[in-house]
Amino acid sequence: xxxxxxxxxxxxxxxxxxxxxxxxxxxxxxxxxxxxxxxxxxxxxxxxxxxxxxxxxxxxxxxxxxxxxxxxxxxxxxxxxxxxxxxxxxxxxxxxxxxxxxxxxxxxxxxxxxxxxxxxxxxxxxxxxxxxxxxxxxxxxxxxxxxxxxxxxxxxxxxxxxxxxxxxxxxxxxxxxxxxxxxxxxxxxxxxxxxxxxxxxx
Amino acid sequence: xxxxxxxxxxxxxxxxxxxxxxxxxxxxxxxxxxxxxxxxxxxxxxxxxxxxxxxxxxxxxxxxxxxxxxxxxxxxxxxxxxxxxxxxxxxxxxxxxxxxxxxxxxxxxxxxxx
Lengths: 202, 114
Hints:
The structure holds two protein chains of two kinds.
Chain A: E1 8-9, E2 25-31, H1 34-49, H2 55-77, E3 83-91, E4 94-101, H3 132-139, E5 141-148, E6 151-159, H4 188-191, E7 199-200
Antiparallel strand pairs in A: 1-7, 2-3, 3-4, 4-6, 5-6
Chain B: E1 3-8, E2 11-16, E3 20-21, H1 26-36, E4 43-47, E5 53-54, H2 56-69, E6 74-78, H3 82-90, E7 99-100
Helix pairs in contact in B: 1-2
InterPro entries (chain B): Anti-sigma_ant, STAS_dom, STAS_dom_sf
GO molecular function (chain B): anti-sigma factor antagonist activity
Pfam families (chain B): STAS (PF01740)
């Protein structure tokens, strides 16, 4: 089943948007395939692991991103080939997630509320699918969706739960914490070698 | 999907030897579990100790396996990573599928589940 997927990972070009206070952004494009979603999540996870987040905090971000992107692959694109664009931006204590795709629009023009697997009926067996949106809404806030020009645009925010002093290295000033430079590409000088034209996940 | 099986006198321990049980793995997991539990005794314990990520598709696959085994056989899960436990807890599936904190070991008595 696994097959080679080359996913261009394009860090935001320097100066593409105004500098954000205490944060930065990461922009990724991927093909509408479940394996590409998995590889993208691994790459995002590597960026998150460089931030001073609790394991649970990083896990919630990964879960929300997984559910949102898998929904697009399975429901918006189905068997058709499509493109997903993911942008992560840190805004204070939250990670603002924006996901765009050129697949079908959401039925009814809005994201579902999401139902848990257990219906609440006594003795009723749990449902074995369709609760991705229940999980997204459980770990995110400010869910927004709109359709424009043949693109779906979904955004939500996930809390960034930082490690306490007991759970990690002693806190350093914010600008010195490597994690707060989410997905930042080392400069040519820092890297000591020419920057790659694009990053390949995997 | 890589699974290993260990038989104990009255139970089968199936271990997932991959780190993600996600949408990309869900169908293969269901198929592999169906094959692995064809001759299973009454209790089937799914050791998820190596799984660090579970999404709704992965959980849905576990629920489907549980329903497939019932009523003659019961699915239980063991050694859940905190990220995996969160998904069980948020969906309240920890109230439906018995959860064992530790990894089951050979010749070790597992808690009885009523």
